[in-house]
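Form P-L/3: holo structure prediction, ligand iron/sulfur cluster.
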Amino acid sequence: MKYHIITYGCQMNESDSERVSSFFQENGLLEGDEEEADVIIFTACSIRQSAIDRVIARGKEIKKKKEKPVTILTGCVLEEDKKSLSSIFDYILDINDLPHWPLPFLSKSSKQYFEIVPKRNGISAYISIMTGCDNFCTYCVVPYTRGRVSCRPTKEVLKEVEEAVEEGHKEIWFLGQNVNAYKEELTFGELLKETNKIKGDFWIRFTSSHPNDFTDDMIEAMKNCKKVTNYLNLPVQSGNDEILKKMNRPYNISEYKKIITKVKEEVPDVFISTDIIVGFPGETEKHFRSTLNLFNEILFDMIYIGKYSPRKQTVAYKMKETVSPSEKKRREKVLNELLKESNLEKNKQYIGKKLKVLVTNSNSKGLLVGKTKNYKSVSFKGSKKLIGSFVDVKINDYSLWGLKGTKIS
Ligand code: SF4
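OUTPUT (holo model):
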């Protein structure tokens, strides 16, 4: 039997898919293309309505096929969505229950979800350290789909890192809806420091963090630990205090700016990305201008912009939508334009610099592509044998979204 996995969503969903793949292979199934698969698994994300719409559309396409494979939907699925989705998919199954999925071609395992060793790509190892969230931002479904915060024991996490490094992975991503809420034997800052002590040549990254759980310990780790990268994703969501309050984000902009100033002062060449929602109910032009002002002050290196869409079960679902779809689109565009302008200016400053790059892939132009320690994209000419290794590159050109260079030595 062959299986095929389609993943929609964030790295948490990617990490779920790696475990599904591993478990199916343990049960004797082989990975195959969508066309030849007997089982298709969708690992989905309910955070945005657009993602769920895509899952529905793909599910319906598959359902129309003459020789229809078995379809499974898993990942972050809202209870409310399950009703409408059950007519499209054969099974809707809880990802945490993977070892016990009631499928005739899988044998039940005595393992727990995290005991399944994920099938990884050999370069980046995504390691979930916690799942769920207690924050209940008014627009977000995570506390309903993933439940409340649950952290993995520190020893288990460190063991998984050691194994991934032994297998040759060069980049460890600590994942969680709110990684810095991690608290077990160690706090998150302590976990970073402890992971840094593990022998081997690798980088440590993490996502996503919440401003409210941000600690000086994390800054210390980013500053002093050689393997902890100078890349920080710290979602702000809006540049306006009133909107933050309506979103139930328990910090204000002046507190957020204080964190960013400190990080920039302490961590050399730090790359800061953020998440912003445009068009939240009640967001006026004035509120949106505060977000633009915040951008101009911080000059984020990347913004993941989401146009607000109401999600059932959340508090914001009951709020009256006040921003039209075209206005949301316009606000997204304005922010994007600011980001592009600032990126061009920043990227220009990299010309002539020598940077260490982790090669992760090759692009359609036959160039190798990878990331610097601070998560800048770099492309350069070289042999595909270099994929998965660190290479020194001298930067001699740039574009909007990345740098171009030549391999040194
Ligand atoms: S902190 Fe993140 S995961 Fe938690 S409710 Fe807010 S947006 Fe959702």
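COMMENT: The pocket of iron/sulfur cluster is lined by residues 133, 135-137, 140, 142-143, 177-178, 210 (CB under 6 Å).
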